[in-house]
Amino acid sequence: xxxxxGFSPCPNDTFIFDAIVNGKTDTEGxxxxxxxxxxxxxxxxxxxxxxxxxxxxxxxxxxxxxxYLILDSGSAxxxxxxxxxxxxxxIRNEDVSNAxxxxxxxxxxxNLLFSIAWPDARNKREYLFSEIVNTILEGKAxxxxxxxxxxxxxxxxxxxxxxxxxxxxEKLTGLPVPLGFIVINRRIPGDIALKFNRVLRRSIEYAxxxxxxxxxxxxxxxxxxxxxxxxxxxxLYVNDFTLTLGPVGRKAVSELYRIAADKGVIPELPESIFLx
Length: 276
Fold this sequence. Notes:
Oligomer: single chain
Radius of gyration: 18 Å
Number of helices: 12
Structural class: alpha/beta
Largest sheet: 6 strands, mixed
CATH superfamily of the largest domain: Periplasmic binding protein-like II
Shape: globular
CATH topology of the largest domain: D-Maltodextrin-Binding Protein, domain 2
Number of strands: 11
Helix content: 40-55%
Order of helices and strands: EHEHEHEEEHEHEHEEHEHHHHH
């Protein structure tokens, strides 16, 4: 069976999918027609159920949950890994709501967490995540939310951290921050969905065991080509929760959606959102 598969060029995604798409591990007879796209592009495609399997932001899933189920493997979720709010100079918390904020997409989890923390902020402007640092440096925004590789390099440009959205979430709940999932279309038969989850977990296990062999596919797609940045990125976003959400991961996801729905930031989700 051939499945369509979309994921981002970010190192944590290419790292976990390398073994699948490049024939390094057993796919149990599954074949894939894959493509890479920016996460916000993937988010918007998911609203139309574009792909059989896709990476999606936690925020965007709230608007695509009727189409997809969250896989147990493949999630970006953890402690100390949240988006950062940065600026050219310090901004007081009470002034953030009136500042012009560059965001990496309306449906990114960065924007969801920011909306929970600063529900009155209205001056948001959307940019590709890779453009946000320069947008701030050029004075087009007072501050911006950064994700992916840029969280490791912003200080080199003279920018400062205003808030860590992961720390905000962890203080609020004591749980790891959910950032993104791999989801599978609800129309895919259950046995095939479970088979793909096994294949994905096998790919992640292979990648973690043979990390040095993943470099070509990862670096050829990364926006930051410095190997130390790529390694830090993978170490942060690929962890035990990526292998399996487990009860703690599922609780974190459910709590994020409960809090966001209670604040009116997202709609209510279906009762069943996880692949079981």
